[in-house]
Amino acid sequence: MTAVPHTARSAHPVDPALLSRALETAGRLANDAAEVIAATLGGEPGDRSGHAVKANPFDWVTDTDRTLERHTRRVLGSEFPGFPVVGEEYGADRGAAEAPMRWVVDPVDGTANFVAGLPWCAYSLALVDGDGPAVGVVADPGRGQIYAAARGRGFRANGVAVPPSPVSRLAGALVCAEDPDAGFLARCRAAHAGVRVLGSAALAITQVALGNAVAAVLTRYHEWDVAGALCLATEAGALVLDRDGRAGPMPADGMLVVAPQVAADVCALWAD
Fold first, then answer.
1. Are residues 122 and 41 in the same domain?
2. 88 is in an annotated binding site
3. How many other C-beta atoms can be found within 10 angstroms of the C-beta atom of residue 82?
4. Is the pTM of this model over 0.85?
5. Residue 109 annotated as lining a ligand binding site
6. What's 72's DSSP letter?
7. Is the domain of 197 the same as that of 146?
C-alpha cells in the first residue's frame, strides 16, 4: 500500500543573511543566463558548430552550456569561497559530497530543446544542504520569467509572490512527466488527467510550483536537473515523494513532485 505523508518534510533553518546573499547572487546569475540562452537558442538555421554529444547522439552539450557553467563557477567562487559547486558540464568540486552546503547548477536544462530552437529550456541553480535545496532559481527565457525561492520565504516569479494553487482534484488536470512508460500514460488517461512531456525536468517541476500542473513524475534524474525547481515547489507547498510515497529531498528511485491534495491519487497511478 502506498503511504502518503500529510505534510511536507521539515527542514532546518538557514542563516538569514546567507539566504539573502545567496538569493541575490543566484538571481543575478539567472538573469545573466536568461539573456545568453535567449540570444543563442537554436543558433543559425542548420548550424551545429560548437554542439557536441556525450553519452549518445541525443545527449547534447553546447558552447552555451559550457560558457554559462564557467561564468556561474567564477561568480560563486568569488562570492562564496569554500562552497563547492556541482555542475552538469564540469562535475563536482573536491569535497562537494561531504560539504555542509554546496551549489548545484545546470546551465541549460533541456539542451535538446535548446539545440532544436524549442523554447522549453532553463537555467537552474540551487544552494543545497543536508535537507535539500535552501535557495533555488530557475530562469525560463522562453516565457521571460525568473523564478526564485528560499527556505521559509516563499516562491516568486519575476519578483511577485505566487499565490497557492487552487487545485483540488486530479481529473481534468495536467501531469508533467519525463520518460513516462505506457502503463502510466494509460492510467492517467483513465483517470481523465492529461500528461505533458516538456523535455526539461526543471520546467516540469516549476509547473507544479506555479499551479499549472498538479504533479511532475520523473523516472530518472540528476541532482542538477531538479535542485533549483525543487526549492520553488516545496516553498509553494508541494510534496517531494519516492515511489512508495515517502518524503525526501532527493529520492533514489525516481521522484514525484505533487500537490498535497492529489498526492494519494498520483502515487497510486505511478506505483501501480
1. yes
2. yes
3. 8
4. yes
5. yes
6. H
7. no
